[in-house]
Amino acid sequence: MAGRRRWSDAFKAEMAARSCEAGANVSALAREIGISPSQLFGWRSVLIRKGEIERRSAAGGVVSSEPQTAPSPIIEIDVNGMTVRAGAAVDEAHLRRVLRAVRSA
Q1: Domain residue limits at 92
Q2: Is residue 41, in this structure, part of any structural domain at all?
């Protein structure tokens, strides 16, 4: 029974970088080097997460690796024909001052 193959960090980085090039076919590259596509995707995601390589779109542009967050909820309050919009993080005391100012305007 054959043992596990070991790949150097430099080899992993080189192959992961190649897989991120515009127009690269990860499955074809994995076949070329004799590994499964999931293994190559694993190497690539580790290096992207570490910031050692950048993921690229099919058009060649860099794709942000920052996690996408949902926009925070916003409340709208109508006062005397005016609309006050406040995010979920607004301080209650500040919102009270704003509403008092809008009412007195």
Answers
A1: 74-104
A2: yes
